[in-house]
From TrEMBL:
Alphabetical GO biological process terms: aerobic respiration
Any one GO MF annotation of this record: 4 iron, 4 sulfur cluster binding
Alphabetized InterPro entries for the sequence: 4Fe4S_Fe-S-bd, 4Fe4S_Fe_S_CS, NADH_quinone_OxRdtase_chainI
Record-given protein name: NADH-quinone oxidoreductase subunit I
Gene3D superfamilies named among the record's database cross-references: 3.30.70.3270
Domain 4Fe-4S ferredoxin-type: 38-67, 73-102
Region (Disordered) location: 131-153
Record's keyword terms, sorted: 4Fe-4S, Iron, Iron-sulfur, Metal-binding, Repeat
Superkingdom per UniProt: Archaea
One Pfam family, short name: Fer4_7
Record's GO cellular component terms: membrane
Length: 153
């Protein structure tokens, strides 16, 4: 009983101090942690089609279809079943796929969460922030430059 009263006292103390923790979304954009994992962005020009992201994905969210010459034809990602573990981003040697801070994506049906490479390329940045610039400084020491321009900006 004393534990319940202590918990209620703490709750009332924080409820009556005047500080608010909510924002009036969507009028005011909430602050997102720099380490937040949001919807993916994909660069076909940088991708070397090594299929490491497909192999490392724990729940088969990423599907890559290739032709006979090992050229990538399709890059599909089911955002609805992604657990945002960031393994696909970490294993990519050329930063062809990155997770943005964008959390604003909706759909009416489950099938609309299956994004192809063009839809992933056109995902907007959250507040204009580029996750490639916000990375740890030591990441550039082991990530290759890739072949091609960064076309997803």
């Amino acid at each position: 009983m004393i534990g319940i009263l202590k918990g209620m006292a703490t709750t009332m103390k924080h409820a009556l101090d005047g500080n608010t923790f909510t924002v009036k979304y969507p009028e005011v954009a909430p602050e997102v942690s720099p380490r937040f994992r949001g919807v993916h962005k994909f660069s076909q020009e940088r991708c070397i089609w090594c299929r490491q992201c497909e192999d490392v994905c724990p729940n088969d969210t990423i599907q890559i279809v290739m032709d006979e010459q090992r050229n990538g034809e399709e890059y599909n990602l089911h955002v609805g079943q992604c657990i945002y573990c960031r393994l696909c981003e970490e294993v990519c040697p050329v930063d062809a796929i990155i997770l943005t801070q964008n959390f604003e994506f909706t759909a009416d049906t489950k099938d609309e969460f299956a994004y192809n490479k063009e839809q992933l390329k056109n995902v907007p940045w959250y507040k204009g922030s580029d996750p490639l610039e916000a990375r740890n400084p030591d990441r550039s020491a082991w990530v290759g430059e890739g072949a091609g321009e960064v076309d997803y900006q």
